[in-house]
Design brief:
7 helices; 14% strand; alpha+beta
Length: 214
């Protein structure tokens, strides 16, 4: 199986798993992944992540121009911003996951670091997660906001919309965005209960040991 054929299959398999577990619903969410030749595979516009066809995945050149397959998601600006500002990015995943969206709407959520440091894996896989303002879906300004971070964050949450995570490959990005959603869920479940999160010393130890962007 060629690299492209395998990646098409992996995108569909991961997307269906996320859809089946309720991490995104309807025709929401999108995934892209970069091939070794620099071209990009991206889920099509208006498609459900639970019912993707590998043969219809959009294929784009390095400049995000459509080469083949169905027309790509309208969230191209989000994806291209991560590829352009974080050279190691091999995949980008965007979901409309419930708990991440809920946390993004709360007034006391910290824009600069919206996830409380409750578990080591949230720190290790995500670093700090930036909350970005609300934008109309497909607005190129979403990409501009990511570019404004100058590559400092691998994960953001669009207020009232959903998380976007870049990773070194498709699996890393997928695992990280699931960790983001699970941490948001934990944050909401323990909100107001006096939950004991990681201390500053514990976070610093994780950052040093695992060379985390923080």
């Amino acid at each position: 199986m060629s690299e492209q054929a395998r990646l098409r299959e992996d995108i569909c398999r991961i997307a269906k798993s996320m859809f089946d577990r309720g991490l995104t619903c309807g025709a929401s969410g999108n995934i892209s992944a970069r091939l070794s030749d620099g071209t990009i595979l991206m889920t099509p516009t208006g498609s459900s992540m639970g019912f993707l066809d590998p043969a219809r995945i959009s294929h784009l050149d390095a400049g995000m121009r459509h080469l083949s397959g169905d027309p790509p998601t309208k969230e191209i600006p989000l994806h291209s911003a991560f590829y352009d500002t974080r050279a190691a990015t091999g995949a980008v995943v965007h979901l409309h996951s419930t708990h991440s969206v809920a946390l993004s709407m709360l007034p006391d959520t910290d824009d600069d670091n919206m996830l409380p440091s409750l578990t080591p894996y949230a720190v290790m896989r995500l670093g700090k997660v930036q909350r970005l303002p609300f934008f109309l879906p497909g607005d190129p300004a979403m990409g501009d906001a990511v570019r404004g971070l100058a590559g400092r964050r691998s994960a953001v949450v669009l207020a009232n919309h959903g998380p976007v995570v870049a990773g070194k490959d498709l699996w890393a990005a997928s695992f990280a965005i699931e960790e983001l959603e699970e941490t948001a869920r934990l944050a909401l479940l323990t909100r107001g209960a006096g939950a004991i999160g990681l201390t500053t010393a514990q976070i610093d130890a994780l950052v040093r040991k695992f060379d985390i962007e923080w």
